[in-house]
Amino acid sequence: MSCNHHLLAAVALLGIAACSNTASHQLPPLQSVPLTTERTLVAAHALGPDLGNPALPANLQHYLDGGYGELVIGPGDPYSSHSTEGNPSPLLGPTARMIMRFAAVGDLQIGDDESPTRVGFLDSKSAASAALRPQDPYMCVLANATVRTVNAVNRMLPIDLVLVGGDVLDSAQENEANWALGILSGGADVECDSGADDDLVPGPDNDPKDPFWPEGLSVPWRWVPGNHDMLIQGNLVVDEGRIADALGDVAPLGTRDYQQGGAIVQRSVVSDPQRSPLSPVQMMMKMASHGDGHGLSLTQAATGHASYFFDVAGTPLRFLIVDTVSKTGGSGGVLRRQDLEAYLRPAMESAQREGKWVIAFSDHPFDDMGQANAPLGMPVADPVSQSEWVEFLGHYPNLLFAVSRRAAHGQSLMQPPGKHPYWAVFNGSQSEYPHQFRLFEVWDADSGYVMLRITGVDVSVEGDPVAAQGRQRAVIDYTSTWAGTLPASADQRNVELWIRKP
Hints:
The protein is an alpha/beta fold. It has a single domain (39-500), classed as Metallo-dependent phosphatases (Purple Acid Phosphatase, chain A, domain 2). It is built from 10 helices and 17 strands. It has helices at residues 57-65, 139-156, 174-185, 227-230, 240-246, 280-288, 298-301, 337-353, 386-394, 465-479; strands at 39-43, 71-75, 80-83, 97-105, 161-165, 221-224, 255-257, 263-265, 308-311, 317-322, 357-362, 399-405, 410-414, 422-427, 436-444, 449-458, 495-500. It has a 7-stranded mixed sheet. The protein has a 6-stranded mixed sheet with strand order 9-10-11-12-14-13. Strands 1-2 form a two-stranded antiparallel ribbon. Strand 7 (255-257) and strand 8 (263-265) form a beta hairpin. The protein is globular, with a radius of gyration of 22 Å. It starts with 38 loop residues before the first strand and ends with a strand.
């Protein structure tokens, strides 16, 4: 990025441009955080009235003045108990033991909000409600807040593993991937800025375009691939023309310009060679070659399909990571029959032979699976349908839970005709209110059952005023009614899910 050697006049809300940022300081680790069984964070303002799109700088101040972004402390959420066989749920036996504790963090949406590929002009209250959000420039610092919170939980209640994804990124760009890997790994400054060198508030460590020192996860993590990780804007296949567009200086559908106070512009975008989108194989190779590969091998990455599995030493557990990204475009989940037969069936068959209990993870839930969705996706010859996927998993009595991502937490009992019942579990988005990840405990209940205890954790922004600003803007996105999604109901948040032991 280049530095502007003068200060521009202050412009509405999103600050002023200034010279290159200085080195950052490291935030102190969080020693502990409350779980949502103890307390919750609740939006203080009721939903609405709508004062205009809060992602536009001219409108955002009205919401801030009206308290739309404020949170208050609410009562804790007790566990609700659910069994595949109905209520009353079983009980833990005298020698019940926890087999494993892991966390799942989904939809970080670490994005370049100044990229020419952005689609700000499409933003609306409909299906495109996430095209432009007031918290967009804060996704990196919010992701870092999530990491700090996970590490705090690990200090309180040791975690064996973190599942990260899908949609760690926003638009499959190389700079986004570099930022994400830097935040998740720690050890060096991360500066989530592209094009011009923006300093929204003069000085270091006080705005989301400043470099910051990420703590990095203290727990091993595994990647769950999502459509935004491998497709431009989560929809478009990476090709030469679109790479050229991303590296250019025109944003036909509107991107942020912080030289104009965060206004949405089409032309005169400052180009940046780090914005190059990566193809699925390139993105998988980048992930597989980083650290321990985060579950993905170079050999697997070269195939262009990112399904894999791993067993947890000392336990009967196998995690099956399912790549549901449509490689022909479109945001919906696509699993080709050729990939199911090549990767997933052998993993399930061997798990059954070896007495492994399987937990499947994917970006897309079962009801967002099928043919590549038009008009942005091209049809494939052999898509696995929703019902086929549900029945495939139900064929295996050692499949316990199928975890995927949705806007809000939840679960559904899957009962394919004549097959094994199991739980579909939905993990909420990290990029939107209420900014919760979930803690999972797998218990051998010593009563003929396995129990999955799931606890929500509110992301802490303690000691990080920039992340606090980002969370405030995400609350405004919700209370303004522009976010388009609602938090989970009480019986879908903290839960204990029971299933017969294989």
